[in-house]
Structure formats: C-alpha cells, structure tokens
Design a protein that fits this description.
By secondary structure, this protein is of the alpha+beta class. Helix content is 49%, strand content 15%. It has 5 domains: 198 residues, Hypothetical protein af1432 (Orthogonal Bundle), CATH 1.10.3210; 148 residues, Beta Polymerase, domain 2 (2-Layer Sandwich), CATH 3.30.460.10; 74 residues, no CATH class; 85 residues, Alpha-Beta Plaits (2-Layer Sandwich); 62 residues, no CATH class. A hairpin with a 5-residue loop joins strand 5 and strand 6.
Length: 740
C-alpha cells in the first residue's frame, strides 16, 4: 500500500507491523485465499477514497486492525470474527456488497458484518450513542453475542487511541459511554481485564486530577506494598510446594477505578483503603482434580492466616452465569491487614481474563453460562417494553451489575437469579404460565408470600391456583426484566379481552331490547356518567360496577333529552356553507402550559410548531431552533424524520405536565363525505354541544354530491379531540374525519 495517499508514512509503518501480528495471531483460522481477498478489498477501499476517518482523525483500516488484534489475542475469537471486523467498513461504504461477503467469505462473516454495520450506523452522528437510539443498539447486541464482544474490543481500542487527541469534547462523550455501557457489558461477559482498562481510561479522561493523584500515591507506596506481598506470599509458597501442587502465585494491585470507588463508598482518604491488592494462586491441575486441589490450597491459606467467614465467595461449586469460577477468601495478614486471596486453576484463570470466548472453548459455543438466557430476556424486554429508552437503559444497567443468588427446586434443579429476586420472579423465570398463576411458595418448607426475596441456597416450591391472574401491583414486586415484561403483556391482553367482552355484552342487550345504537349519544352518556376514557367505562361493565339494564334506561333517557323538538332548522347544501375564521391570539395558553423539557426543566420559553399544531396530550419533542428558543412538535410531525436525520443533536425530550384546564389550541380537521341535506348542520350541532370546544372556521368544497371540508376548532387536549372525532364519524353521510 506504499503508493496509496490515504495512509501517512507513520500509518504505513504501523500497518505493516499490525498486519504481520494479526496474520500470526489468526493462524490457520483464516485461509490463505481469504487473506489474499481481504488484502485486495481493503486496498480497493483505500484507493477508491470512500473510507473516512472518524472524529479523532483515526484511519479506519488501522483502527480495525487494532480491534481485530484485541479480539484475537485478548478475547480469543478468531476466523469469521476477524474477517467481519476487517470488512464491515467496506460493506458500510458500499465498496463490497453483503452478497459478495456471503459468497466469498461465508455465512458467519456475513452475520457478524450485518450486526456491526447496524450498530455502527447508530454512531454516524456522534461518537457516543444518543438516548433515542439506545434501544436499537441493545437490540442489535441482543441478536449475536459476538457483536457485543467485538464492540467492546473496539471501544477499548478507541479509548487507547485517543490519549493524545485535542478533541476533548468527543473524547469525554466516548469515555462516559465506556463507563456506563461498555465496562458493565464487559463485566457481565466476564472480560474483567478489559473492563478494568475501560474504567481506568474513562476516569483518566473525565477526571484526570483524581486519576493522577491515585496513580502517584500507588507509585509512592509500591516499594512497601511489594515487600508486604513478598512477606505474605513466601510462607504460602513453601506450604503449597510441600503439598506437591504445581502453581503460580502473584500479587496484583487493584485498578485505579476500583480504588476510587472504594474511596467514595467508604468515605475515606486513599490512606484509609486497606485492600489495595489481591493475591492470586493459579494451579496447574488436571480437569478431574480442579476442585479438590483448589480446596486443598484454600485449606493451606486459612491454616496460616485467620479467614473472615463473611467474605468467602465460592464460585467453584456454583460458577457465575458468565462462566467465572474461583474461590475468594479474605484473611488477616501480617500487621493486622486484611488481604484478599483468589484461588483458581489455569483454565479458570483464562476464563476470568478472557471471558466468554474462553468459556466457549472449554464448554462448547452454547455453553453452560446462562448468557444466552440473559440475552433472550434482554431481547424480550426491549421488544415488548412500553417504557422509554432511558428506563430500559436503567433496567439494563441493573441487570449487568447484579450479583446472583442460587436457588433450588424441590427436585434439586439449580437456578440463578439476580440478587433481590422474589418468589414471583422465580415463578416467571421457570415459565410465564407458572408465574401468572402463582399465589405464593414454600421456601425451605415454610409458606412465604409472592414478595419474599430469595437468598442463595433456598429450596423453592411454587404454589399456584387456576383462578389466579396477574395484578397491576405485581410490577412493584418483581425485579427481573423478564417477569416485568410478561406481567405487562398479560395485563394488556386481559384488558383487551375484558373490553371486548363488555362491548359484546352491551351490543347484545341493545339487540335484545331492540334499541338503535348511536355512538354519539353513547359517548355523551359515558361523559355524563363521569368516565374520561372509554376503556374505563367498559372495564367498569366487565367488573360489574355498572348494571347493563340500568345503563340502557339511562341511554333511552339521554336519547329522549336530545330528541326534544328544537327550532326548525333550514337545511342547505354544504357547498354554500363557509364560516369565516375568527381572530385567534397565538399566545393563548401555549406558553402558560407546563411542559417538562429535557429531563426536569420547567418554565422554559417555547412555542408550538405550526407544521403539526401539537396540543395537550400529544406525544411531543422539543427542537432547539437557531435563535435558541425551543419549538414543540408532535412525534408524528411530517417533518420529524427529516429533522431528526439532519439535526438529531438539537432534539430534546419534552412531555406535558400539570393539567390542561382553561387552555385551548387550534386544530384543523378534514371531513370527507356525501353532500347530504343537513350534514353540515349536524356537524356544527355536535360541536356546539361539546363543552370547552369552539368552532373557529369552516371551509367547504362540494363536487358531484361529495364534499371535502376543513374545520378549525379550539380544543383543550387530545382526549376531548378524540371524543369529538368519534362523534363526527357517526354523522350520517360522513366517510372520513382526520386531523391535519
């Protein structure tokens, strides 16, 4: 690539070194033909000048080579993963088609590239993901575990590359995202080494003073710390050697970020943190002797130093869901200092250092890690959740960092759940039908309620009843996203079934008593009975709070009241009916309404966009205009898609708060129908009967017996507007009513 101007001289030298390293690291996982093809396509991409550098000026080919090396050497994935990393930029920029990839490099490479292209597209506007794209990012992750691993490696690579950048604003965005998203993901997947690096670099970029201070203090105390570690290790070494075990033993200083966390949690200065390091004993054990020899080493350590029984962590008998296996014990060392000791085998250590990929190598790609199940629950929560992206994000982060509890069924089957999980969580974890019928459980032989929080070692027998159904307050009992999603889904289905049942019951009673049903009359009756939402009215029928026969009597009474003789009305064709618009004060109410902008900001100056005329109750967003003011648009505004595409960074969250009483907004409705005698009079009559709705203007076009009219009305909120639209649709001859 010497003749390609896309590369600087320094990059050409770096390229040669990286290419050689990756070639050696990949070994025979990539065929020589694929290597030749890779080189050919990458060269073509650089020559065609379609590849672009990112916000930090990093060459994409150099970046991908670095990422591929991390994936190969530090995570341990080879073959198709490396091919996917090297080719995804070429697919993204249309230098190479996805069909060509499938044909020349196989289905696995194609799958990985699709995932990488999808996730990378979300970063086109900013070096960090925007909140509204967060759900899409997680859904992309949830489709293939390997895509998550590659994205973590790429973020580690990017964090290493931007040490010297002048673009501090973008570096801070990248660093913050590394801390709140990629480090927790690395933790969940068992990539503890990469997790620590992401956290340390994030702290370094976002709070350099704290990082430098802790680093300097660690350097100052290094000599005394090394002496202490040597004094602690020496007697253990002799005893373990005497026992005939093959092993390595070493002291490891904890990461700067974890020390900073301890300083904050314990509210103590650096000097007050006692456990700055951990001792690790790594045994070379045969597979069938692993547990036996780990416990043997544990016995040697605890014979020499007093253990703290509360700090024993046995992930040997029951590994973590990401495959992590180890024995952790805290013992009292010389000079009365507590020291953490970790005991594991060489195999366990590789899984602890390299995470999921190493676990797959030993256990098979499906593994026994429980991570497939976790990803499935993530996917279900994202696909079915009604909550916004920020709520999903909070739940996702909780799931990532949760400790685990291990519980048993009466038959002895073992299940892992997040710490804090309840009996109800456990029931839904086993099966959604079991969860829906759960009335409690027997835990260790004793009856407990649904909200009982499980602890490790509990034996749980779920008790059910065929009459039990999910309740709204169950959402306050469960902690897992799987249970929450299933409960919400079931409650929705139940509400829909009850609504239909109540509606059918009412319709049947109307037919039995031979009463003509008029939706407009029914809507007015529902309103008179005090129901704001139609679904609440039908729910009351389903629950037996409303007697249907009494309701029919009230309906007949309502009809009589409305059919009382009024003054004779002179009917005319719609063609000649045009009511002139009345003057309207643009400032009427719009700025006095309480809108919550962004997170919790109230009282900001805003105007309502004229392109979509939002009103109280509409789903809205704020758009920061060039002048600095905020314009409020409906989420379904016809201009929203284009605005988001071009100016996504100027979008802010907005929602209505308080009440809409006393406020009115102009809305234009389009009515299409037959030019029947009196149709316009009927329409205006309905509007005039509505409280808090005013007709401002009507414009009518009539041709060949059809009319198309526009009505401008003043209305307080979406509830009143929807009710009016339903009533207008019941007018004889009206075919269509829509909001402009």
């Amino acid at each position: 690539m010497d003749e390609i101007p896309f590369f600087t001289e320094a990059e050409k030298a770096e390229l040669a070194i990286l290419y050689k390293k990756l070639y050696q690291s990949a070994g025979d996982s990539i065929t020589k033909k694929h290597i030749r093809d890779l080189k050919k396509y990458i060269t073509a991409g650089a020559v065609e000048k379609k590849l672009k550098r990112n916000n930090f000026g990093i060459n994409p080919i150099i970046r991908d080579l670095h990422t591929a090396l991390i994936v190969s050497e530090e995570i341990g994935m080879k073959g198709a993963c490396l091919v996917g990393i090297m080719l995804h930029e070429l697919v993204k920029t249309d230098i190479l088609s996805i069909d060509q990839v499938h044909k020349e490099f196989g289905e696995e490479a194609e799958t990985i590239i699709k995932g990488l292209v999808k996730t990378n597209e979300l970063y086109t506007k900013s070096p960090a993901i925007e909140s509204e794209n967060f759900r899409n990012l997680l859904l992309s992750f949830a489709e293939d575990m390997r895509v998550i691993l590659i994205m973590i490696a790429d973020r580690v690579n990017l964090m290493r590359q931007i040490r010297q950048t002048d673009n501090e604003e973008d570096r801070n965005k990248v660093a913050n995202e590394a801390a709140y998203l990629y480090a927790p993901l690395a933790h969940k997947l068992g990539l503890y080494k990469l997790k620590s690096e992401l956290e340390d670099l994030s702290l370094k970029y976002s709070n350099r003073e704290v990082y430098t201070s802790i680093k300097e203090k660690l350097n100052e105390t290094k000599a005394s710390r090394d002496r202490y570690i040597a004094a602690f290790i020496d007697p253990i070494k002799k005893k373990v050697e005497a026992a005939g075990l093959k092993f390595d033993i070493k002291g490891r200083t904890k990461s700067i970020h974890s020390i900073w966390n301890k300083i904050q949690k314990q509210k103590t200065p650096f000097e007050g943190i006692y456990d700055l390091f951990a001792i690790r004993i790594i045994l070379d054990s045969d597979p069938d002797k692993e547990k036996q020899e780990c416990w043997q080493a544990y016995s040697i350590v605890t014979d020499m130093y007093q253990p703290n029984p509360k700090r024993l962590r046995d992930w040997l008998s029951i590994p973590k869901s990401n495959g992590y296996e180890s024995l952790h014990i805290t013992v009292m060392g010389p000079d009365g200092k507590w020291v953490e000791v970790q005991i594991r085998t060489r195999r366990m250590d590789e899984i602890a250092e390299r995470g999921l990929a190493a676990h797959w190598r030993y256990k098979g790609i499906k593994g026994e890690s429980g991570l497939d199940e976790w990803l499935t629950s993530v996917r279900e929560a994202l696909e079915n959740s009604d909550s916004d992206s920020l709520q999903v994000m909070d739940q996702f982060k909780m799931d990532l960092y949760e400790d685990e509890v291990f519980v048993f069924t009466p038959k002895g089957d073992l299940f892992k759940l997040p710490k804090g999980a309840t009996v109800l969580d456990f029931a839904f974890h086993i099966h959604s039908k079991l969860g829906s019928k759960c009335i409690g459980a027997k835990v260790n032989g004793k009856n407990v309620q649904l909200k009982y929080k499980l602890v490790s070692g509990d034996q749980v027998e779920i008790m059910t009843s065929n009459t039990q159904t999910p309740k709204q307050d169950w959402l306050n009992i469960v902690t897992t996203s799987k249970a929450r999603t299933k409960i919400k889904q079931t409650l929705k289905e139940m509400a829909a079934r009850q609504f239909e049942f109540a509606k059918e019951t009412l319709e049947r009673k109307f037919k039995n008593r031979k009463i003509d049903y008029d939706e407009g009359t029914m809507m007015r009756l529902i309103k008179r009975l005090g129901y704001k939402v139609v679904t609440e009215f039908y729910q009351a029928i389903a629950d037996g709070y409303i007697d249907v026969n009494e309701l029919l009597d009230k309906y007949i009474e309502q009809q009589k009241r409305e059919n009382d003789p009024h003054e004779d009305i002179q009917y005319r064709s719609a063609e000649g009916y045009n009511l002139q618009p009345q003057a309207f004060d643009e400032t009427n109410g719009s700025k006095e309404d309480v809108l919550v902008i962004d997170q919790n900001l109230k009282g900001l100056e805003f105007t309502l966009a004229k392109c979509c005329n939002p009103i109280y109750g509409d789903d809205v967003f704020g758009f920061v205009s060039v002048s600095g003011g905020i314009k409020i648009h409906r989420n379904d505004c016809p201009n929203a898609a284009q605005m988001r595409q071009r100016f996504g960074y100027r979008f802010v969250k907005a929602r209505w708060a308080g009440k809409s009483q006393g406020r009115q907004y102009p809305i234009t409705l389009r009515v299409v129908g037959h030019d029947d005698i009196g149709i316009v009079t009927n329409i205006t009559s309905i509007i005039s009967k509505e409280n808090d709705i005013t007709l401002r203007s009507i414009g009518i076009d009539s041709h060949d017996g059809l009319f198309s009219g526009t009505l401008t009305i003043m209305v307080g909120d979406t509830g009143r507007l929807e009710t009016l639209i339903k009533k207008l649709r019941t007018v004889k001859g009206v075919k269509q009513v829509s909001r402009n």
